[in-house]
Amino acid sequence: MQKWIQRLANLSAIGMFLILAMGALVTKADAGRGCGDEWPLCHGKFVPAHTISSFIEYSHRLVVGIVTLILIATFYLVFRYVKRTDAKVFITATVIMTLVQAVMGAMAVVWPQSSLVLALHFGLSLLAFAFSLLLALVFTPWGQFTRHTSIRTSFKVLVWFTTIYSYVVVYLGAFVRHTVSSGGCSGWPLCNGEVIPELSGATGIVFTHRIAALLLFICILFLFIQARRHYDSSDKLWFGSKWALILVSTQVITGAIVTWAMGNEVAYLLTGMLHAINVACMFGFLCYLCVLTLYDRKA
User: Fold this and answer.
1) Where does this protein have coiled-coil stretches (predicted)?
2) 287 φ, ψ to 5°?
3) pTM of the prediction?
4) Are the C-beta atoms of 250 and 243 separated by less than 8 Å?
5) Pick from 116, 124, 111: which is nearest to 32 by CA?
6) Spatial contact of 161 and 215, defined as CB atoms under 8 Å apart
7) pLDDT tens-digit profile of 183-208?
8) Which residues are CB-contacts of 50 (< 8 A; sequence separation ≥ 6)?
9) Of the candidates 201, 144, 197, 145, which has an alpha carbon nearest to the alpha carbon of residue 176?
10) Residues 33, 51: contact at Cβ < 8 Å?
11) Which of 5, 243, 291 is nearest to 145 (CA)?
């Protein structure tokens, strides 16, 4: 039974990753209205006409439905056969976040919502993926969160601050997409050829996101330096911090490429999706570090 639970946990994490990626595609391809104002039907049909926008939107809905069924099965088996409390917490949080984002997605279709609310939809998907990833890790050697050495209090604070702040930066990025503000800054690293542009409208939104992303890079770089200074290279804290730094560096690069790709629809779409997928992986590693701090050995 443990093997089945592990397989379902892995499928849940993969499924949540697909939901997040497909949600980014829906936004980038402007396919959110691909099924009109109807939910769960698409233009009054279970199988809609084969237009690109309706296919993208309906495929996203279909995947959400399938993954939800997998999550329900995983939820039952975890509570029935797994004794670890953390596994129960992770699957419960995944199910809750998935259901909330599904309801929000349906509401966004039937009743158009503000960009502030729509941006939160991606944030919930990110949390659902992070919790599903942690659940999958429970059944691997990396899921043995207990430690034999204590963690410095300052490092714990840095980990949690960086993770929470990264969520804010991700939300700003989603807000940029939903307000269609990406074109507010042409060029990179300069914005419209200026170090500090006029901070109004779309330009102000994009520039704020860029500054926030720069500060996030500095936070994760400092986090890695602290992990390398105080923990062995075989320590999970060092490993997680290293990959968080690698991924935030990649995130900066993909963000620049997204800007350079404007004007080329296909390249812009692909790099935009890569940008969203990369940030999910980075956030997953930061959440993993947060969990490690919760299992610190008591002095």
Assistant:
1) none
2) -65, -35
3) 0.85
4) no
5) 111
6) no
7) 778 888 888 888 888 888 889 889 99
8) none
9) 201
10) no
11) 291
The 3-state secondary structure of 195-260, one letter per residue: CCCCCCHHHHHHHHHHHHHHHHHHHHHHHHHHHHHHCCCCCHHHHHHHHHHHHHHHHHHHHHHHHH
Tokens read off for 229: 């200074």
Q: What DSSP element (H or E) covers 181?
A: none
Question: Is residue 191 helix, strand or coil?
Answer: strand
Residue 257 has pLDDT above 70, yes or no: yes
* Domains of the chain by residue range: 1-144, 146-299
d(CA 182, CA 176): 6
Residue 8 has which token pair?
Answer: 């379902």
Decide if 297 contacts 147 (C-beta within 8 A): yes
1-15, 27-41, 115-129, 244-258: which range is least confident on average?
A: 27-41
Q: Environment class of residue 298 by beta-carbon count within 10 Å: exposed (0-12), middle (13-18) or buried (19+)? A: exposed
Residues forming beta bridges with residue 42, ordered by sequence position = 45
Distance CA 121, CA 189 (A): 28
Q: For residues 115 and 241, what is the distance between their CA atoms, to the nearest angstrom?
A: 32
Side chain identity, residue 128: A
What band does 263 get if pLDDT is binned at 50, 70 and 90?
A: confident
Beta-carbon neighbour count of residue 71 at 10 Å? Answer: 24
- 138-165 pLDDT tens trace: 988 877 777 667 888 999 999 999 999 9
- Active-site amino acid positions: 57
